[in-house]
């Protein structure tokens, strides 16, 4: 048939064949596979891994997804018939294309960058949550005070505790004022008796708080 293989790269190859009159109303079958066991392999259709159907109006086909640095065998027949030796060609793919290699590297770098970015975002979110939780906890402890109560509660307890002491202190001050008033009144009465002895007609009875004895009527007459 005069099959030729052109534009061979690491991943693609163009297969060209002359048109056959028997396939004018049918299609062409392009079959290819790696030629690893060229001695033992046959030309049966079952031994080929890939088979593509090409319209009869075309006389070329680009084989894709090949492995670099690999030997392939390609055959072209009419209407999926079993190929013969003159309908096949053997070719070798080249090294990987620099463009495809750069694209692969870019895709790999992009995947690594996306993965690292997602991990960094997750770590940052965890750290931010921990910091906010710690700040809220410290603020709550500061508001509650050392004994686990709030300043308003502590102030209320202090006011409640200080109330009995305040009442007791107030009672003491009132008692002291009463004692002072009693002593002053007793002193005024004694001074009155000394200046006017004639007024001692009746015994003067002082309050027990003064704790002082007053002369009786007989003693007043003795003074007279």
UniProtKB/TrEMBL annotation:
Domain Fibronectin type-III: 1-99
Superkingdom of origin: Eukaryota
Gene: Fndc9_0
InterPro entries: FN3_dom (IPR003961), FN3_sf (IPR036116), Ig-like_fold (IPR013783)
Transmembrane segments: 110-132
Keyword Cytoplasm part of the UniProt annotation: no
Species this chain originates from: Atlantisia rogersi (Inaccessible Island rail)
Organism ancestry: Eukaryota, Metazoa, Chordata, Craniata, Vertebrata
Record's protein name: FNDC9 protein
Disordered: annotated segments: 143-167
SUPFAM superfamilies (alphabetical): Fibronectin type III (SSF49265)
Keywords annotated in UniProt: Membrane, Transmembrane, Transmembrane helix
């Amino acid at each position: 048939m005069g099959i030729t293989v052109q534009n061979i790269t690491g991943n693609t190859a163009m297969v060209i064949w002359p048109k056959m009159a028997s396939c004018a109303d049918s299609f062409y079958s392009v079959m290819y596979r790696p030629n690893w066991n060229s001695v033992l392999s046959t030309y049966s259709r079952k031994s080929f891994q890939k088979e593509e159907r090409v319209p009869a109006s075309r006389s070329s086909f680009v084989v894709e997804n090949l492995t670099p640095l690999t030997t392939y065998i390609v055959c072209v027949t009419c209407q999926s018939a079993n190929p013969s030796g003159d309908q096949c060609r053997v070719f070798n793919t080249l090294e990987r294309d620099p463009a495809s290699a750069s694209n692969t590297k870019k895709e790999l770098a992009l995947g690594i960058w996306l993965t690292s970015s997602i991990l960094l975002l997750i770590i940052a979110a965890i750290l931010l949550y921990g910091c906010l939780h710690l700040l809220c906890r410290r603020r709550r402890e500061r508001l509650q005070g050392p004994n686990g109560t709030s300043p308003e509660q502590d102030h209320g307890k202090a006011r409640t505790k200080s109330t009995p002491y305040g009442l007791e202190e107030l009672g003491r001050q009132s008692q002291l004022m009463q004692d002072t008033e009693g002593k002053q009144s007793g002193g005024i009465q004694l001074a009155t008796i000394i200046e006017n002895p004639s007024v001692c007609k009746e015994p003067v009875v002082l309050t027990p708080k003064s704790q002082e004895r007053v002369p009786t009527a007989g003693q007043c007459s003795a003074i007279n």
